[in-house]
Amino acid sequence: MAEREFPHFTLRSGATREGSRFTALLSSHPAGGGYPTYFAVYENRSFRDEASAAAAAEKALGLVMGVEDDGAPVFAEGETGFDDEPASEAG
User: Fold this and answer.
1) Is residue 85, in this structure, part of any structural domain at all?
2) Which residues face 26 on adjacent strands?
3) DSSP letters of 32-75?
4) Residues 6+ apart with CB under 8 A from 19
5) What's the pTM value of the predicted model, to 2 decimals?
6) pLDDT, tens digit (0-9, with 9 covering 90-100), for 23-64
7) Which domain of life is it from (predicted)?
8) 38 within domain boundaries
């Protein structure tokens, strides 16, 4: 689990089990106390093991540019976090 500090929030990476697969997530913890909010990342993919999901979440945490007023992570426009080649458009 990795974490980064932002104004008014600390974001932490993690993974959680969903059935037989794992999901990568970021949790947003208010600096003044209170309950964290959880955000699934890479929702279009699931992971066979917890370590892979945790590594993906840590990568996503590194791509966060800032935090919204409600603690939601902000990513660059079009950022997927995956090293996939963009699909070419058919003409």
Assistant:
1) no
2) 13, 39
3) T----EEEEESTT--BSSHHHHHHHHHHHHHH--EE-TTS-EE-
4) none
5) 0.82
6) 999 999 999 889 999 998 887 788 999 999 999 999 999 999
7) Bacteria
8) yes
Query: Considering the chain, what percentage of its residues have pLDDT values greater than 70?
Result: 87
Angle at 71 between CA 64 and CA 79, to 5 degrees: 30
Please count the structural domains in the chain: 1
pLDDT of residue 80: 62
Residue 23 in domain: yes
As to burial, measured by CB atoms within 10 angstroms (0-12 exposed, 13-18 middle, 19+ buried), residue 49 is exposed
**Domain that includes residue 49, residue range:** 3-74
* Structural contact between residues 29 and 17, judged by C-beta atoms closer than 8 angstroms: no
> Is residue 88 included in any domain, yes or no?
no
Burial status of residue 47 (CB atoms within 10 A of its CB: 0-12, 13-18, 19 or more): buried
